[in-house]
């Protein structure tokens, strides 16, 4: 499955990069999404496969921090990019005459950069906040990859409340993106039904 995901995303990246006819906003965002998917699947699965092959579940402290950073970075960037892609489809379908002005190449680059930047900022905040907690209940996680709730279980400090607060803020932002995506698709489906009538 991992190799199929690598191959599929690599083919999408190659096709979009090489075919000049695919240099449109939709395919630009799809290329970014494929890059993010390649990164996110490569953050956890190779380590999990190596652990399975060598029957070893050990991860270094620095490796855990790097894995957590990359996982949060790529997941948040993907979610933000999906929100941007919905906006792209909304403009293309509901405001086709304004498409070139609203989704010019500069605007697309800025939106993709904002998605990547949001992921980086979230990852930086979560990683710094999580690994500033003292771990006094050992250093063994119950999973094959590092994630925030598992690390919080190892902390005996009262300062874990700030991490929980950061998780709540992130959940609210994720809910905002989710609602934007749902409302946009409702508008798109309504526009499609109106066009067919």
TrEMBL record:
Transmembrane residue ranges: 27-45, 66-87, 167-196
Membrane-protein topology: Multi-pass membrane protein
Record domain G-protein coupled receptors family 1 profile: where: 8-197
Gene (UniProt): OR14A16_1
Keywords: Cell membrane, G-protein coupled receptor, Membrane, Olfaction, Receptor, Sensory transduction, Transducer, Transmembrane, Transmembrane helix
GO molecular function: G protein-coupled receptor activity; olfactory receptor activity
One matching Pfam family: 7tm_4
Main location: membrane
Subcellular location: Cell membrane
The name this protein goes by in its record: Olfactory receptor 14A16
GO cellular component, one term: plasma membrane
The organism's place on the tree of life at top rank: Eukaryota
Keyword Cell inner membrane annotated: no
């Amino acid at each position: 499955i991992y190799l199929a995901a690598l191959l599929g995303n690599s083919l999408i990246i190659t096709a979009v990069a090489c075919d000049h006819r695919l240099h449109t906003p939709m395919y630009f965002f799809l290329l970014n999404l494929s890059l993010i998917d390649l990164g996110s699947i490569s953050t956890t699965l190779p380590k999990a496969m190596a652990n399975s092959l060598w029957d070893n579940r050990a991860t270094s402290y620095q490796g855990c921090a790097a894995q957590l950073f990359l996982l949060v970075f790529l997941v948040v960037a993907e979610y933000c990019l999906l929100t941007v892609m919905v906006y792209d489809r909304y403009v293309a379908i509901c405001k086709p005459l304004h498409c070139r002005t609203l989704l010019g190449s500069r605007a697309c680059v800025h939106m993709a950069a904002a998605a990547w930047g949001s992921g980086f900022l979230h990852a930086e905040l979560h990683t710094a906040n999580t690994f500033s907690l003292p771990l006094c209940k050992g250093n063994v996680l119950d999973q094959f990859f590092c994630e925030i709730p598992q690390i919080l279980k190892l902390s005996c400090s009262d300062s874990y409340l700030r991490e929980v607060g950061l998780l709540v803020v992130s959940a609210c932002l994720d809910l905002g993106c989710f609602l934007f995506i749902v409302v946009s698709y409702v508008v798109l489906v309504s526009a499609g039904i109106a066009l067919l009538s």
